[in-house]
């Protein structure tokens, strides 16, 4: 089978629940830094009104985006803090409803309300 010839990280999942690899979580909300977008080799980021999302069927688990996020909002699903588990489904759902983003943009203005704090 051709999937047996692919490196582990590039193997194709057998069902939809196995697709999610990385998740954008709470720290991205009201920040939307897009440093992660420009390093993604498969362009799997999608832009919502208040945050970014990773498409679970497109992410190849390369981890290039993780160190680029200035607010540490990107986690492998296995390392996602328990209080943010709902972001796995949110990323999956919203990446189907929002436009793909492939270029860096200015982050959202921080008005010191619920906002983000750059590390």
TrEMBL record:
Q: Could you confirm whether the keyword Metal-binding appears in this record? A: yes
Ordered alphabetically, the record's keywords are: 3Fe-4S, 4Fe-4S, Electron transport, Iron, Iron-sulfur, Metal-binding, Repeat, Transport
Domain 4Fe-4S ferredoxin-type per the UniProt entry, residue ranges: 50-79
| UniProt xrefs under InterPro entries | 4Fe4S_Fe-S-bd, 4Fe4S_Fe_S_CS, 7Fe_ferredoxin, Fd_C, RnfB_subfamily
- Record Pfam families: DUF3470, Fer4
Region described as Disordered: spans on this chain: 91-119
Q: Where is the composition biased (Polar residues)?
A: 91-103
**Which cofactors is this protein said to need?**
[4Fe-4S] cluster; [3Fe-4S] cluster
Which GO molecular function annotation, any one, does this entry have?
3 iron, 4 sulfur cluster binding
The UniProt function text for this chain reads: Ferredoxins are iron-sulfur proteins that transfer electrons in a wide variety of metabolic reactions.
Q: What is this protein called?
A: Ferredoxin
């Amino acid at each position: 089978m051709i999937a047996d010839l692919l490196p582990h990280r590039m193997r194709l999942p057998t069902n939809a629940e196995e697709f999610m690899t990385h998740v954008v979580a709470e720290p991205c909300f009201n920040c939307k830094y897009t440093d992660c977008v420009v390093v993604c080799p498969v362009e799997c980021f999608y832009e919502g009104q208040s945050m970014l999302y990773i498409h679970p069927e497109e992410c190849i688990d390369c981890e290039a985006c993780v160190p680029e996020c200035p607010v540490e909002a990107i986690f492998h699903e296995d390392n996602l803090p328990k209080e943010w588990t709902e972001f796995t489904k949110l990323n999956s759902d919203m990446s189907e409803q929002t436009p793909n983003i492939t270029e860096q943009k200015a982050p959202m203005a921080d008005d010191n309300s619920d906002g983000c704090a750059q590390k």
